[in-house]
């Protein structure tokens, strides 16, 4: 069995999926995953489809070096660089589909799922080499990654029961001193 970095609080109401050694850039995949955190599953899939169609953007918050500013980032309350990392988006979309089918097997309500946990880790680098001038050779490394997702069924909110204060009655709070004085007046002993 594969170990996840975090276990859900209620395993019965959650579904997990993970992928190892994906041949996609770690930095792009990390930014894509962080854009999806705490998002509803249906909304996340629609968002990733919009990114593939270049109608929406993945805001680059940490690994943003030399990326140009994108006007579409305003939709995400971010006024900086953004990109459309297609390969990362396709892999995460596949992973979300896998997690959704795992939820269906557990007979969870797929319309009610939320991305509770999504994490991207660096995998072992792939080694290649490139040939440079004057007979030198340099490393030409790839940066693959591991991704894990946990979907959790949303808890239905329960309204608070109506009490005396909400019904219009005034609730009187007494200090300990007032309570003691009332007990003495009524004849009860302390």
Protein topology:
Layout: E1 14-22, H1 26-36, H2 41-52, E2 58-59, E3 82-83, H3 86-105, E4 113-122, E5 129-131, E6 137-139, E7 145-153, H4 176-186
Antiparallel strand pairs: 1-7, 2-3, 4-7, 5-6
Helix pairs in contact: 2-3
Structure description:
This protein is of the alpha+beta class. Helices cover 28% and strands 20% of the residues. The chain is built from four helices and seven strands; from the N terminus they run E-H-H-E-E-H-E-E-E-E-H. The protein has helices spanning 26-36, 41-52, 86-105, 176-186; strands at residues 14-22, 58-59, 82-83, 113-122, 129-131, 137-139, 145-153. The strands form three sheets. The chain has a three-stranded antiparallel β-sheet with strand order 1-7-4. A two-stranded antiparallel ribbon has the order 2-3. It is elongated and about 105 Å long.
Shape: elongated
What is the tally of beta strands? Answer: 7
Span between N and C termini? 63 Å
- Low-confidence region ranges: none
Strand percentage lies at 15-25%
**CA gyration radius, whole angstroms:** 27 Å
Q: Determine the mean pLDDT.
A: 91
Q: Looking across the biggest beta sheet, what order are the strands in?
A: 1-7-4
**Biggest beta-sheet profile:** 3 strands, antiparallel
């Amino acid at each position: 069995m594969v170990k996840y970095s975090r276990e859900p609080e209620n395993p019965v109401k959650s579904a997990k999926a993970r992928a190892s050694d994906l041949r996609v850039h770690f930095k792009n995949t990390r930014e894509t995953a962080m854009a999806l955190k705490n998002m509803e599953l249906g909304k996340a899939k629609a968002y990733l489809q919009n990114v593939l169609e270049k109608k929406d953007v993945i805001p680059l918050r940490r690994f943003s070096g030399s990326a140009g500013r994108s006007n579409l980032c305003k939709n995400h309350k971010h006024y900086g660089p953004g990109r459309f990392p297609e390969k990362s988006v396709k892999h995460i979309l596949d992973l979300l589909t896998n997690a959704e089918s795992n939820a269906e097997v557990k007979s969870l309500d797929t319309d009610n799922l939320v991305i509770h946990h999504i994490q991207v880790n660096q995998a072992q680098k792939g080694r290649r080499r490139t040939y440079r001038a004057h007979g030198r050779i340099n490393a030409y490394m790839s940066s693959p990654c591991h991704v894990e997702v946990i979907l959790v069924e949303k808890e239905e909110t329960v309204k608070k029961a109506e009490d005396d204060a909400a019904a219009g009655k005034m609730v009187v709070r007494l200090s300990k001193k007032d309570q003691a004085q009332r007990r003495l007046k009524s004849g009860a002993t302390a």
